[in-house]
């Protein structure tokens, strides 16, 4: 938005040279104030927060970011911490995982008889793995054995590629990387 101080002065005074000079001189200070007000509002919401806002959220929630985390990864960790609500049901757990990883970004397997919960995070959501693992460690009941892992590429994922296309990649790439057609 283009805000000019001169536009806030009554029209009859806008032509007065002194008011024009004052408005021109004060314009930079007012722009800084408007930007600071916008940043303050943006930092109240995780999606629009800048580095300062994210740092404040991390301080409030007691999150220690890694030095290699991007701003989006730090925002994800904040959202994961906020989403950690117990008690929960399996439906609530799946809702939280869908929110964090996307609707197709995870697989949940619960073995009631053996008290075992296995959650696999898709490779497409790999960058969120640590935050998902921390969330699950905080909300899964202590009587369940928890296994959190990555869902590596399966045969059905690789079957759409020719042998020549697969030969261009290493075994590690075929197993661990998100593969695109090409």
Would you give an account of this structure?
- The chain is mainly alpha-helical and about 180 residues long.
- The protein has 2 domains: about 5-40, no CATH class; about 55-175, no CATH class.
- Helices cover about 50% and strands about 10% of the residues.
- The protein contains 9 helices and 3 strands, in the order H-H-H-H-H-E-E-H-E-H-H-H.
- The chain has helices at about 10-15, 15-40, 50-60, 70-85, 90-100, 130-140, 155-160, 165, 170-175; strands spanning about 105-110, 115-120, 145-150.
- A 3-stranded mixed β-sheet has the order 1-2-3, with helices on one face.
- Helix 3 (about 50-60) packs parallel to helix 4 and helix 4 (about 70-85) runs parallel beside helix 6.
- The radius of gyration is 25 Å and the shape is elongated.
- The mean pLDDT is about 80.
Main beta sheet strand tally, sense and closure? 3 strands, mixed
Mass-distribution shape: elongated
Q: Give the neighbour order of strands across the main sheet.
A: 1-2-3
Write down how many β-strands occur, each being a DSSP E stretch of 2 or more residues.
3
Q: Kindly report the average pLDDT value.
A: 80
Beta fraction of the residues? 5-15%
Helix content: 40-55%
Summing up helix and strand content along with how strands pair, one would put the structural category as mainly alpha
Q: Gap between N and C termini, in Å?
A: 43 Å
Q: Indicate how many domains the architecture comprises.
A: 2
Per DSSP, the total helix count is 9
Order of helices and strands: HHHHHEEHEHHH
Please compute the radius of gyration using only Cα atoms: 25 Å
Low-confidence stretches: none
């Amino acid at each position: 938005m283009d805000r000019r101080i001169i536009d806030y002065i009554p029209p009859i005074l806008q032509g007065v040279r002194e008011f024009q000079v004052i408005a021109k001189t004060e314009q930079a200070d007012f722009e800084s104030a408007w930007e600071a007000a916008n940043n303050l509002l943006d930092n109240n919401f995780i999606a629009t927060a800048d580095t300062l806002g994210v740092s404040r959220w991390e301080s409030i929630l007691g999150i220690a970011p890694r030095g290699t985390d991007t701003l989006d990864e730090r925002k994800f960790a904040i959202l994961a911490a906020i989403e950690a609500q117990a008690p929960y049901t399996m439906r609530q757990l799946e809702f939280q995982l869908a929110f964090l990883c996307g609707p197709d970004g995870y697989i949940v397997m619960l073995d009631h008889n053996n008290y075992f919960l296995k959650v696999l995070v898709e490779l497409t959501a790999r960058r969120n793995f640590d935050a998902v693992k921390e969330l699950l460690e905080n909300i899964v009941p202590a009587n369940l054995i928890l296994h959190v892992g990555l869902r590596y590429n399966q045969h059905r994922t690789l079957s759409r590629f020719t042998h020549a296309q697969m030969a261009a990649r290493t075994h590690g790439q075929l197993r661990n990387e998100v593969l695109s057609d090409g």
